[in-house]
Amino acid sequence: MLSDLSTEEHLAVYYFRCTFETPSVLMDIHSEFCSYLGEKLADRTIGALHALITKLQKDGRRKLTRHQLSCNCVGLDENCFAHLVTMATKNDKKDAMLIAVLLSDANVAAELVYMAQDLGQGIRELVDKISSLDNVFFLTPQLNIKHN
To answer: What pTM did the predictor assign?
Structure first.
């Protein structure tokens, strides 16, 4: 369940799911990131998300699957992705490498870890900047989020 995840893990799952939506959803996320992080860090974070998902879909052991944005469950691929991002960010590179190897070819695992670290750092920065705000939609795991 999403409610069992840390805020960073929850956001990693949410952004993972968003990559399967229309491009306008990612543009909305980029705008939110720009508002809180500035354009440079927003570009790096969204770029890392896009590059990481693209690399996993292209060089992964299989195509990744996800639940709908509004689903409170967490799928296996989503959970692995969230742990890859958080382990890479927490400087737990050995565990991050193990997860990357499970998801992809060993030849690209290190690259995946570095992309996951960039994504995770952006997420961490976002959480740090806005954790004191109330009613922020992507920090509330129980909300049913729907994008048009």
So the answer is: 0.85
